[in-house]
Amino acid sequence: MRRLYTLLLYLLLPYALFHLAWRGRKQPSYLQHIGERFGFYGKRPRQPLIWLHTVSVGETRAAASLVNALLERYPDHRILLTHMTPTGREAGEALYGERVLRCYLPYDFPWAVRRFLRHFKPAVGLLMETEIWFNLIGECRTAKVPLLLINARLSEKSRKKFAKAPALTREALSGLAAIAAQTRADAGRFKKLGAPSVEIMGNLKFDITPPEKMVKRGKALRIDFGTTRPAFLAASTREGEEALLLDALPQFTTPNLLFVIVPRHPQRFNEVAQLLEARRISFQRRSENRPIPPHIKVVLGDNMGELFAYYAACDLAYIGGSLLPLGGQNLIEAASVGTPILIGPHTFNFSEASELAIQAGAALRVQDAAELAKTATRLLADPSSLSAMSQAGRAFSQHHRGATARLMALISTYLV
Fold first, then answer.
1. Pairing between strand 49-53 and 78-83?
2. pLDDT single digits (tens) 47-79
3. What CATH number does the domain located at 2-203+401-412 have?
């Protein structure tokens, strides 16, 4: 089965190269370090390596508490972060600087993976969330590199996809040294796919501490927005959502409201600007870095790495990816700074965290953009409700901390 999978990869190779070229038109960083995607790297460090794979921005930020703990406990090791996207790589540089090494994980061709493993010789490998790559797992097993799937999550939709190749999936899950699932539901879905052993260790994202630098920047942003002006944040919005939100903008009837939109992917900043221009909505880019005049209705958040600052600066936040069937985005960061939260109906990628936040009183669910506008307008006129949701969010995020310590105990068994 793995041979058939590898053959399919070879057939898809022209598409992968076309994808890099296409993405490179709008984001030239996709055309950098292409050799790394096929297992070609520069000089290897002399220290033993702990390898952590964080695909893109979300996983890179979620791993912050773990990376810092590993750096502190294993000072004689180097941390190698691998990514699949330029934005993930840039987030790693912004968060950790020269304290860690960074490169792209190669595509899942056996020979490319073998080159990666021979070059870096990691003492242990850590895959974040749902990164199940069949050849990678098989080659790590052959090379006797213990490979752990940590902060593991698996939606029912993803489980059904993996279930279409049961033998291949069982082989891969059996090749992992350990699976540390976020929730009981995630663990159950991994077991249904044939995972021999799964431990429940919680979600690393709860262990993120809001960076003091971003909290201060949020206070400065609030001054730029206007301290008496209500500010509503649409955070990590995905393709198609901005149009829904802008069409519903007249239904946000809060007087003098400032609407802040932060698209999830930086390559879409200009696209969202064009949507605003087409609707003749007065807006200002955050990258202009100046106070917001009273006539501006929308701020376009087009700076990378400032999401905590936006949460700290706004009165209420909608978490993107949930009005359309895209699975939602992480709401824990908003809760950790006490920002009241609204989410749409589609949160299958963060189902348990979303339900727990609702139960805790930190979040409310809406069914569409019209209900979002109505609920936001009601809450912004009710400071006591916003205050209660803010306190509930902080308590919710604190209550579920501890995944980092549990994962460190697990990882230590493979670093003797």
1. parallel
2. 999 999 999 888 998 999 999 999 999 999 999
3. 3.40.50.11720
pTM equals 0.85
The pLDDT, as a whole number, for residue 265 is: 87
Instruction: Report the relative pairing of strands 316-319 and 231-237 from DSSP bridges.
Output: parallel
Q: Edge-to-edge strands of the sheet including 78-83?
A: 100-104, 78-83, 49-53, 124-128, 147-152, 178-181, 199-200
Pairing of strands 341-343, 316-319: parallel
Question: Rounded to 5 degrees, what angle do the CA atoms 336, 127, 402 make?
Answer: 35
Report yes or no: 159 and 186 within 8 Å, Cβ to Cβ.
Answer: no
Residue 17 has which token pair? 């190269």
User: Residue 231 in contact with residue 225, Cβ under 8 Å?
Assistant: yes
Among 137, 154, 156, smallest CA distance to 146 is for 137
Q: Sheet containing 363-365: give its strands across.
A: 283-285, 298-300, 258-263, 231-237, 316-319, 341-343, 363-365
| Identity of the residue numbered 4 | L
Active site residues: 59
Q: Would you give the DSSP letter of residue 257?
A: P
CATH tag, 212-399: 3.40.50.2000
The DSSP bridge pattern shows strands 341-343 and 363-365 to be parallel
As beta bridge partners, residue 260 has: 233, 299
Q: Is residue 304 classed as helix, strand or coil in its secondary structure?
A: coil
Q: Which residues of the chain have pLDDT under 70?
A: none
Q: Which two tokens mark 42?
A: 């520069």
Task: Confirm whether 2-203+401-412 and 212-399 share one CATH topology.
Answer: yes
Domain ranges across the chain: 2-203+401-412, 212-399
